[in-house]
Amino acid sequence: MAPAVHFPIYRQYTKARQSANNAMVSFLAGSALASHTLQLTTGSNRLLPEIFPAVPHINRFNLRPDAAADVLGAAGPHLATVTIPYALAIHENFVTLCIRWIRDAFGFPPPRTVSSIRSWNEIDTSNMHEALVSMTGDALDQHGSVDLELFHLYRLMRNCHIHNGGNVTNALRRQVRSLSSGAQDRWRKLTRREADALVRGDRAEYSLLDVFSVFAVTKGLGRGVNALLQAGLAQEHWAEACVDDYQQESSRTRNSEA
User: Fold this and answer.
1) Which of 16, 33, 105, 253 sits between 20 and 30 A of 135, alpha carbons compared?
2) pLDDT tens, residue by residue, 8-43
3) CB proximity list for 182: less than 8 A, separation 6 or greater
4) How confident is the model over 111-159, as pLDDT tens digits?
5) CB burial class (10 A; 0-12, 13-18, 19+) of residue 39?
6) Which of 5, 28, 124 is nearest to 74 (CA)?
7) Which residues, in sequence order, are bridge partners of residue 203?
């Protein structure tokens, strides 16, 4: 894969993704540290506010240490349920901004080859990558294509929890069945489970590893979008982008010699 071009929208995306990833990992580490600390209070019948009165908001966690440890130990899937929409939203904003950028700055045509899009307002998470491919006339590389499959998998998992009470949808089942062998291999390496495990029961179950996996998938897909723009934008487009970026970041006036 070609080195990424760090244009302003991509820099903003990278910073936001890294910040969110660090925050989610800190929650995981914090819950593990808390669980470890509670081992020092094993057997106590006192409530946590009595044992740790100086901890902010501890009254909201008004449990005995053993019960609190159980809650902390089961927090991973719940954190994944929160993390997945967060990571997808950051990526959606990045792709949407890229589409607006090349449309407004360079006059790129609308995505005429995507049947689900009849106007700019119909571009959403389900078709935005396909829209960008149509606009640029190029294709995602192999790595980007694999991560796009898994992006749609996570998108449909998210929809199960937001729109269907956590129950598996037929759309998710279809996406699992349609995964390429490359996507199945990447999913297996990231999550240490088979993709069809998602749809064996009625519930769309997350695991702790989904917290790391969704950020890995969006990072890879973000780099794929970056490579797509490198191929789809002409040299004069990138030259104009560099001039605009310099003008925004520099205190010097445009066309100055100093």
Assistant:
1) 16
2) 999 999 999 999 999 999 998 998 899 899 988 988
3) 142, 146
4) 988 888 888 999 999 999 999 999 999 999 999 999 999 999 999 999 9
5) exposed
6) 28
7) 167
Q: What is the pTM of this model?
A: 0.91
Question: 3-class DSSP state for residue 95?
Answer: helix
**Backbone angles phi and psi of 204, in degrees to 5:** -90, 100
Query: Phi and psi at residue 203, in whole multiples of 5°?
Result: -105, 145
Residue identified by tokens 């066309």 is: 255
Instruction: Write out the two tokens for 188.
Output: 């297996």
User: For residues 7 and 241, is the Cβ–Cβ distance under 8 A?
Assistant: yes
How many Cβ atoms from other residues are within 10 Å of residue 109's Cβ? 11
DSSP for 161-182 reads HHHSTTBPPHHHHHHHHH--HH
Whether 84 contacts 210, CB under 8 Å:
yes
